[in-house]
Amino acid sequence: PVSTWAGKVVAAAVHEHIENAGVHSGDATLLLPPQDISSYTRSRVEDMTRKIAKELNISGPFNVQFLAKGSDVLVIECNLRASRSFPFVSKTMGVDFIEAATKVMMGAPYEDMDLPQLGQTNRPSGYVGCKAPMFSFTRLRGADPVLGVEMASTGEVACFGADKHEAFLKALMSTGFKLPEKNILVSVQDSLQDDMVHSIHTLQELGYEIFATARTHAFLSEKHVPATLVRYPDGPEGSPEVSSLLREKSIDLVINLPTSASKELDNNYLIRRTSVDFGIPLLTNPQLTKLFAESLVRHKRGELIGLESKSLFDHYQSETEEDTWSGMSEFH
């Protein structure tokens, strides 16, 4: 948001993270406008934002991160600065938040700018923006490619789509992520298996052959989800060895979902690191995996309008004057 000297919020954008709390905001995948938060949660966020701006007497840009679960909406942090999402928000909503913030701090008039207001829910309209992180794990030998509270991304991309599935899949592919063609390896910590079996079954129904490590394979067998057992390097003979499959590039996608309770720390690290070293797409977050499975279903059905990305400038050229919130020659 942007606030005046009186602590009044004069411009605001609310977006949501796909990943749950615990993933650094710089590594999170963002959706604007938010797709899954309730009107109750949004109203609490807006009310608390107004109170924070007024109490701190903020003049200029600031960002607030909230944690929402059930009926609880809590503040994680408030930063009195422009966040790294300001450019994404500006381009998605069609107004220069930095220009607005600068005018406010300098005491210059800003009323001529068509600023999105706190509580406004129709902007953007007709499309969804998705910002996805990019990582350099391939250049960081030995680094563990798993998301956590410390920021690891070194870049980001942003894409527009007709809905959240198209925007997400387009952004993911723009980072260099290749959609799987045949074989998917899954290794899911026990506490997540009940929740993730739905997405794994969805992928199996799409025609992918599922390969699974021992405990995940046992769970899938119990739930009647077909899968091929693979063993860790130190596991018993008789089934394909996981690192060999990865090095041979027999696997098109790796889904490795650990938690703090995971016991196979070395083997899970080996799976993730080998995947990165051999250029195999890797998902390590449950929420991302769910949205990926949903998006892939719609893609396979031909429901997504298009996944071919074009530049922002090409997007501008295809707009009509009615599509923009500013003049055609201005930033939007």
Total count of helical runs of at least 4 residues: 10
Note the run of SSEs as H and E: EEEEHEEEHHEEHEHEHEHEHEHH
Question: Strand pairing plus helix content: what structural class?
Answer: alpha/beta
Distance between the ends: 18 Å
Largest sheet: 5 strands, parallel
Low-confidence residue ranges:
none
Mean pLDDT comes to 90
What's the arrangement of strands in the largest beta sheet? 12-11-10-13-14
| Radius of gyration computed on alpha carbons | 22 Å
Strand content: 15-25%
What is the molecular shape? Answer: elongated
Quaternary form: single chain
Give the key terms.
332 residues, 18% strand, 4-stranded antiparallel β-sheet, 5-stranded parallel β-sheet
Could you please describe the fold and organization of this structure?
The protein is of the alpha/beta class. The chain has ten helices and 14 strands. The protein has helices at 39-56, 86-93, 97-106, 164-174, 190-205, 214-222, 242-247, 265-277, 286-300, 312-318, and strands at 2-3, 9-11, 16-17, 30-32, 60-61, 63-69, 72-79, 128-134, 155-161, 183-188, 209-212, 228-229, 253-257, 282-283. A five-stranded parallel sheet has the order 12-11-10-13-14, with helices on both faces. Strands 3-4-8-9 form a four-stranded antiparallel sheet, with helices on both faces. A three-stranded antiparallel sheet has the order 2-1-5. Strand 13 (253-257), helix 8 (265-277) and strand 14 form a beta-alpha-beta unit. The radius of gyration is 22 Å and the shape is elongated. The protein starts with a strand and ends in a 14-residue tail after the last helix. The relative contact order is 0.12.
